């Protein structure tokens, strides 16, 4: 599903440059649920951005679902993001003047889907996250957990191969966090590949594999026994 | 461009940010309002000029004789200049190709009567061409013709006012009117747009007037129109050369300003042309200035809008929005705001002109208004202006990097 070899990335800072990723090798198979951990500055967000085609590596190889991701035009990158990737952010990143339904339908709009079809599909996914009754509400009328569910529905709407989550529970209280994690686990059970950046041990332990980064290299890559989130709910 | 969903997106964005959109549109509305009013006023001034010249041919040259003020070639100061019939041939021989119509004229004031009704009228002995020079319209019968001139026919054409005053409920055509004791057959009635004074006149073949009231070939003045294809500079030069030749013919000093006077409409036309031209330039400069101010204002606010929406644009890009779709959203939003705001300004301007227009006539502003072609032109200009105003911000928006926009801060 995902193959990364000798990935390097550095950012210029004034005259010198900051070497953030120093040769990352990572393979993710279909159906995996991977947590990327590390302290701030370890390069975990940069890695996620490169995997999410929001940023480009300086050198190394990145193959997503058999497609090499290199020197893409902006247009092509947009198409790939839309087709292959679903994003879940710490701060939800919903568009505040659009209703929950419209937010979920947005990736489908960029796919060129017809309005009616789009809305039906968006409604289906909203129902899946249990928010069918909140379809006409604006983000500001929703709680944090509900907002993240809308974001998950939006990430799922285009039926992506890979779900990327950047600290999906970072802005939520413990109970809501477990709620969301239970839902993400359910998605993984259904076969969705999930990659998640987190710095919380208990959240990471709810994945099936933990990759630990430090100073731009992978320190540890272990399979773990998944802790089910339902037991806390 | 005609993607319904794109429009829906744009209207949603405009609608959700109503205050912001209103404020950005306001500059343009005001600019166009000002422009429309100024333009209308300038048009009004132009109309006033036009009307001042009336319906007389505005390519007229009138030549009056006078008395010499400088002794020349043995002639004393104060010699009277008398035009004669031959002067017409003199001018036509020399300048025929530049003359459109020509008439010599003899003026008399005579008592007129018909069946007991009496009054005094100005009687003008003229050539048939006079009809075109004065822009007379024959209402009944006919005008004076060449045949009348050759036969010194005792016929007259009377103005509408003369008809009303002397011929009460009688058709004057074919009737005989008494002028200074001599009967003349009325062959026509004419009207003149310039009003009562010009319709209170009786026309007669010039040969008849000369024969009956002096038995000479004297002419009071000469009136001609120059070829309308000449511009005002050429026409002024033409007038001067006529004057020079006549001065030579009558042995008048070149610098004698009184012996032969020539009134050339081109003088006024030229001044009016210069005035209208400078007015147009001023209006255009002001118009463009205000429009540019409006564009800069919109552009400014759109840049701010893009900055404000950085995160949203980043989200859209992360969800698969192409740079092109981002550009269209910003560009079309800018065009819509500019066009709608401008159009409101234009309508308001036209409205103001309609409302206060009639009361402005005192200030020499007649029928101020904005033409349809200007409205269409302005609309197109506004759309282009909106595109220009939106271009930079849209370009900026399309360059937004999603990771920068989505950074948690």
TrEMBL record, chain A:
Residues 2-233 form the ABC transporter domain. Keywords: ATP-binding, Nucleotide-binding, Translocase, Transport. PROSITE patterns: ABC_TRANSPORTER_1, ABC_TRANSPORTER_2. This is ABC transporter ATP-binding protein. It comes from the Bacteria. GO terms for cellular component: membrane protein complex. The lineage of its organism: Bacteria, Pseudomonadati, Bacteroidota, Flavobacteriia, Flavobacteriales. InterPro entries: AAA+_ATPase, ABC_transporter-like_ATP-bd, ABC_transporter-like_CS, MacB-like_ATP-bd, P-loop_NTPase. GO terms for molecular function: ATP binding; ATP hydrolysis activity; transmembrane transporter activity. The keyword Flavoprotein does not apply. It comes from Allotamlana fucoidanivorans.
TrEMBL record, chain B:
Residues 285-402 form the ABC3 transporter permease C-terminal domain. Residues 21-235 form the MacB-like periplasmic core domain. It is found in: Cell membrane. GO terms for cellular component: plasma membrane. The chain crosses the membrane at residues 21-42, 277-305, 326-353, 373-392. The keyword Secreted does not apply. It comes from the Bacteria. It is a multi-pass membrane protein. Its main location: membrane. Keywords: Cell membrane, Membrane, Transmembrane, Transmembrane helix. Belongs to the ABC-4 integral membrane protein family. This is FtsX-like permease family protein. The lineage of its organism: Bacteria, Pseudomonadati, Bacteroidota, Flavobacteriia, Flavobacteriales.
